Queue: 2 jobs
Job 1
Amino acid sequence: MSETKERIKTLILGSGPAGYTAAIYAARADLKPVIYTGMEPGGQLTTTTEVENFPGYPEGIDGPAMMVDLQKQAERFGTDVRIGMATAVNFSDEPGGIHEVTIDNNKVVEAESVIISTGATAKYLNIPSEQRLRGGGVSACAVCDGFFYKGQDVAIVGGGDTAAEEASYLSKICNKVTMLVRKDYLRASKAMQNRIMNIPNLDIRFNTEVDELLGEQVVEGLRMVNNQTGEKEEIEITGFFVAIGHKPNTEIFKGQLEMDQTGYIITRGKSTKTNKPGVFASGDVQDKEYRQAVTAAGTGCMAALDAERYLAEVETPEETTT
Ligand code: NDP
């Protein structure tokens, strides 16, 4: 097993805007970062079409293109980008201690500092018909899978920015899109609401929830229910998209790091410090409030600076000021 062990200075988990920004800063500070991309290299932005609100792109930029640029920028300064998934961790409690992270259940990386940027994952409704039909017409990513339903009728559930953005995207490629919103208003921002309110082939149903998806092997229809009147209605659809929020990817850190009730990692004050010395968290994994590419990138920068300062302190402890 010893040949599968490796000692490094800074390990970054996750390859969204937080992870790559941390890598850019860490590499420029000579922390020799190794980044493991996780299951979805590039993170959530690879499932977005256009990013219009990242400063510096007046015309907007494709999510996947932006992630390729971020990766190149991180590599330019020497970041070692690897495909792989952290499957277990053993974080040290001691300042200057070595943290062990198992990759893909076989390789152990020993790191002096760790930056966690593992992001968040889409939630599902968790009703039996939805679970049965995952892979058979149920998707949590319109941009990834919408193409398969070109010219067909589909439905989407959710009332936030993600649902609005995906409904708008689907309306451009599908014949008809029915959007189910459980409240009598959208949670999405005003700008996003304005974008979808008058799309002719988008039918927004307020106070409406999924009763059941219809079909055995593939989605054939949807029975929806009005939660005010109890009235049910069936429509024919071939694709069903879930856009009801996300869950932080923190399963493997349970019992090691302090988290809130939902599983978001708790960081100290305005820093990215976790409860373990030398372990930092940035991006959506510790932020349920803002969750933007630019804020994720900002906290990635902070995590690299925090790691740099931490390593300098533990290497010369007599100069420690905190
Ligand atoms: P949100 O948590 O903002 O919204 C989730 C939506 O799903 C809400 O309307 C919620 O309803 C609904 N919902 C939750 N659970 C269920 C359920 N079981 N059944 C039916 N409906 C349900 O998540 P988003 O992913 O939309 O957005 C996350 C964050 O990312 C937000 O801060 C958002 O602003 C941001 N974002 C920004 C974008 C941009 O700026 N371009 C694009 C996408 C996201 P209810 O309101 O009743 O709770």
Job 2
Amino acid sequence: MRITVIGTGYVGLVSGACLAELGHQVTGLDVSQEKIDLLNQGVMPIYEPGLEEVVRRNVQAGRLAFTTDYATAVPGAEMISIAVGTPSADDGSVDLQYIDAAADMIGRYVTEYVVVADKSTVPVGTAERVEGLVRAASGVQVDVVSNPEFLREGHAVFDFLKPARIVIGSAAARATERMLRAYDFVDCPKIVMDRRSAELTKYAANAFLATKISFINEMAGLAEAVGADVENVARGIGSDPRIGKEFLRAGLGWGGSCFPKDVRAIRFLGNQLGVPLPIVNAAFDMNRQARLRLVDRLECALGTLQGKKIALLGLAFKGNTDDTRESAALDLIRFLRERGALIRVHDPVAKVHAHEVGGEVPHYEDPYETARGADAVVVATEWEQFRTLDLKKLKELVAGDLLVDARNLYDTNRVQEHGWRHLSVGRQ
Ligand code: NAD
């Protein structure tokens, strides 16, 4: 099938490359000339394990190409997938300007029936909106389906090719049939429903997962107070199949490019429609509290944060990605600086920019150099490299003795063996 994917970010590039891997003829389109130039030189504009290989293989096989030109990418496509950003607007609603621009451009260049699939996470009713925009600009009959994406950054290629399910929200039988054909070689349940339910499914999924993390962080606070170990509690409840093991890691809470904006969006929807969403609201508040609680405990352990040198390891919102959007680590930097701490940072791939944290932060290439002379080391991202840090060597370099294990990566006995005080989450 001839498929065009609009947007070559985390979702668009991965889905385009993987659809080519499934045998389709794919064009990846982006408005960013810089991204398309990089892709045409074989350079990945994002860090995602395994992606470069899939892209290279399919470009070489002639199944995948990249362009900025709608005039070549739209006519003749049988399916057009929209995977542009849908950031939060200032009031918490979803900023649909990129969706609208893509719909308008499809409308300008479409010449025959095509199925347009909204892969971006979009508010309920957006499929109808996109359909209206495309038809208004073109006069051509198109069907718009909702096809939300559930991939995880850091595992995106695997998740796209081996998903738990594919959701297709459709109002037209021929559009459904075409979508099922596009995903024919993906072995998973294909759940077909109406478009509004499909759009809400994506928000409900992210709100539920965020709530699960907030719940275990709430339990972490209680565990600290009563002298229990939240990791044991998570194991104890997670082995119940009704609860499940995933998303029960206590730590700094959720961040990234999806959960915060999607939880904000569903909150906005509830407020707009006068439907109370107390659980979603509590999940949001708990997330901020999880970060502040850690900063309070760190301050308490050091006596004061004023003038204290803190080495922060990890900027990305989770391991295996360079994505720092709404990362807990950036919140930590802001909170710690507000209380007078002097921060320096290291991340294996992610970078921090001054405007994101209210000023310049020295960035080091090496975790040990970052820690030299520090009063405390804070591990803020669950990178595998951090799990295997030489804690003895690290201890010899620091001035203080406090290791803040904000993702519960280390065993307390092992940490203490090397002379550290171990401050972790939900544990003594
Ligand atoms: P991204 O910011 O990484 O990529 C979006 C891309 O779209 C950018 O390269 C941008 O230049 C391009 N773009 C913007 N307007 C365009 C236009 N009019 N025409 C062509 N290209 C245009 O975003 P992302 O992380 O890939 O997310 C895309 C969507 O998928 C969002 O709605 C997001 O919520 C959703 N989503 C993301 C993830 C994730 O893990 N990142 C997972 C599931 C769903």
